[in-house]
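Q: Structure for this?
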Amino acid sequence: MTRQGERPVNLARLAEILDAYGADPRRWPVEERVAAEKLIAESAEAASLRADAAALDKLMDLSTAPAASPELMARVLAGRAPTAADGWLAMLWPFGPVWQPLSAMALATVLGIAIGATAPDIVIPDYGDSAIAEAESLTLGPALNLDNGL
Amino acid sequence: MEAHLGRIHAFAWRMLGDAAEAEDVAQDAFLRLWRQAGKWRAEARVGTWLHRVAHNLCIDRLRQRRGDGGEELPDLPDPSPGPAADQQRAQVARRIEAALACLPERQRTAIVLVHYQELGNIEAAGIMGVSVEAMESLLSRGRRGLREALAGLRDDLMGDVQ
């Protein structure tokens, strides 16, 4: 008895499956997988058919594809279309990679905070208006006293 | 993305037998993916879509080769130098790749999609635009062709590489 969605498999159909998909159940049609494996477990003839298919699989698996080069990955990434976020940033900074101005801004922010946090407090003493006027007259002298019309 | 790129490159390499052409196909497939990114449907599978595009690109190149009067058979790379066992294994692999390259285009595509790319029969049939029954027939004939091409060699080869 088969569950819903599964199909029964006889020896002839198993031979077709092995002929087309090979010996690995992962490649078999999903709806026939359980019945096919059951048949192989119960029948020596079915197991022999599978062993024959497995020999060809093993041979085929000796061929391995070369890995893609790192240059290919770089080329593919370089050709990537800008995303929505990329487009918004590109409008703000159309001169090149947006990480450059963002890095500069981040660095300036960090430096500003660091300087602000470590610099000593600057206290401006209150000398009063008369002291400032006196200092101005000493520095500029009477020659620059515009009130005298000179 | 790296996994998809590796798989598409491998697919194109098996179809075309040329590493440089395989890289061009993979790059082209991804460029088309980037162009589609804005209108991508959530239910669409990227891997299936990429295989379909790469398949079409490979078919175009194979037809162009035939049109140019060139051989359809790929120029398979020489086995890499190394210890004797590695060289022996590389030679065996090259024989298998040559046998695969000798198969008719559609049979080779079916085998590459199902055996090497490990796609399900329904997904592979969809990529090739054929029914599942037709896909199964292509697979059967393809594997039979490989079996015949490697007949007589199989026992020796398996004995040598084990």
